[in-house]
Design goal:
Layout (H helix, E strand, L loop, with lengths): L1 E6 L6 H7 L6 E6 L6 H6 L5 E4 L12 H9 L3 E5 L2 H9 L5 E3 H8 L25 H13 L5 H13 L7 H7 L4 H13 L3 H16 L2
Parallel strand pairs: 1-2, 1-3, 3-4, 4-5
Helix pairs in contact: 4-5, 6-7, 7-8
Length: about 220
């Protein structure tokens, strides 16, 4: 029996995660809420073979520590990270055995972003629903909007500057566009583009689960 523990719920809801990776013959998959300091010590007692870290707390509780992850790896557990806290920690520990996956991980690993503020969101502690927009998603969407000639590089820089100056619990597209100098026509086109864009943190979370599933084969 292969036991897998995945920490998510925010970037990817449990029901959607189970559509990609769920318990089956010879595999037990346990989904848990975003990881916090001390959770891995408890997880080790469950004797997992694989741990996937997607979401984690940043400000509500103490964040999962590097030593905790390294201790898990030392105990023979394969650890994957993507999307949010997992991507951040993987970029810091990829040379020490943690496997990073996806766009957000690559942004951290390359030095394009270096702050936990880029993936931080305000969440409903009961439903795990995101109540704000992560900066990393906004950067991804605005960069693609430049490629599609919807906005200019200067306009992208202005939007990101507004978003970065906004305290993360209050960060969202509507507020950012309202404070920008974009004309109404451009705002309308950009709003439609935003609505059609993928949630890159969610896509990275899916990729982590698909990677684990593939590695089991």
């Amino acid at each position: 029996m292969v036991k897998i523990i995945i920490y998510t719920g925010l970037s990817l809801p449990f029901d959607e995660a189970k559509e990609i990776l769920d318990s089956a013959d010879g595999i037990e998959v346990i989904y848990k809420r975003p990881i916090k300091r001390g959770d891995l010590s408890i997880a080790l007692k469950e004797n997992p073979d694989i741990i996937g870290i997607i979401d984690g707390v940043f400000h509500q509780n103490s964040a999962v520590g590097h030593k905790e992850i390294l201790n898990v790896i030392k105990n023979g557990v394969k650890v994957y990270g993507a999307s949010s806290m997992g991507a951040l920690r993987a970029s810091e520990l990829d040379t020490l055995g943690m496997t990073g996956i996806g766009y957000v991980y690559n942004q951290y690993a390359s030095g394009e972003v270096d702050s936990d503020d880029d993936v931080a969101v305000m969440l409903d502690s009961e439903t795990l629903e995101a109540l704000s927009e992560p900066l990393i998603n906004m950067k991804y969407v605005f960069t693609n909007a430049v490629k599609e000639n919807i906005i200019t590089n200067d306009e992208k820089d202005e939007l990101l500057s507004i978003a970065k100056k906004t305290f993360y619990p209050k960060r969202n597209y509507a507020q950012t566009l309202a404070q920008s100098s974009l004309d109404n026509d451009t705002k309308g086109i950009l709003i439609n583009f935003i609505r059609e864009s993928v949630d890159i943190k969610k896509e990275d979370a899916k990729e982590l689960l698909k990677t684990i599933k593939q590695d089991l084969q």
